[in-house]
């Protein structure tokens, strides 16, 4: 269907399923084991209800914000997703172009199909990009990647901490990666590829399983970029991250692709905010230690719920992959435009002219926690 018939982010998924080669669909859409966490990620938002306010001037509404000190047109960023060329020949550059047009931040994955420099070169002057790091057990390689990213102007380093081993994505494992086009994987981060068991396992064999808290000191010694841990799943680790002096955490289960039965990021957010307030006196959102959430975000209402509960911004993964798979960068632009339009309407209907007006009392999250 033509792009103007696309009404919401779910539509891109249905179309991508029809147009993508079977292998690409398997890699993009799959999640761990029985995909319970994957389904829960979106379902959790269905347990949160709004408490809108009335009779406030909502002629002008403004949902722009700053993420790690960088301007963003909305409290949404494009999360890192590997292997963009499985879906479209321009791969991750589709995301770079659309991010520029819509004023949002792109997180570049270690396992991009395009090379890191191609993605940075595709950015407009002043366009902000973050970098997602899979830590290679060869620290010399990691150091080179990190320092190169910093030298190219990347504004935040998101270290993925939920993937010492890649989860079992069985849909993907049924596909052999060996006859896939080798150009789909850039050589930047991966080395020693085992091609026998699906795309995910093939590209991840270099990841350091020995990574630990103490290593954060080493990261701080090699870069001045803000460090963010991507894949925190309970308040204890969020507190420890804060005490280690990192700039923030992403409450994420990797889109349900790692540990099945991990809780949704939005549910974890509630306990993180409560415990960091109680134990460290922190209020959220907060510029010194920012909380991000990802997984299952498909509507501006989902984003607004996360913001109300204390998140600075949320990450979105699959919908943008599906959008460029079907329509290239214009698809991603359209996806962002849909979110933009949804923000405008929903903030009006909530009686919230700015993000600051989206306070915890605007949501009823009492059904959120499963216990
Ligand atoms: C991912 N994600 C991911 N995360 C990461 O840190 N490094 C990576 O290489 C990838 N690769 C990747 C590939 C694909 C196909 C998907 C779907 C996801 C996880 C991603 O950053 C994010 O956490 C989730 O995608 C968020 O969930 P949704 O928005 O896809 O539901």
Automatic annotation (TrEMBL):
GO biological process: lactate metabolic process
Organism ancestry: Eukaryota, Fungi, Dikarya, Basidiomycota, Agaricomycotina
Keyword Heme attached: yes
Name the UniProt record assigns to this protein: L-lactate dehydrogenase (cytochrome)
Enzyme's top EC category: oxidoreductase
Range of the intact protein held here: 105 to 475 of 504
GO terms, molecular function: heme binding; L-lactate dehydrogenase (cytochrome) activity; metal ion binding
Subunit structure and binding partners: Homotetramer.
Catalysed reactions, as listed in the record: (S)-lactate + 2 Fe(III)-[cytochrome c] = 2 Fe(II)-[cytochrome c] + pyruvate + 2 H(+)
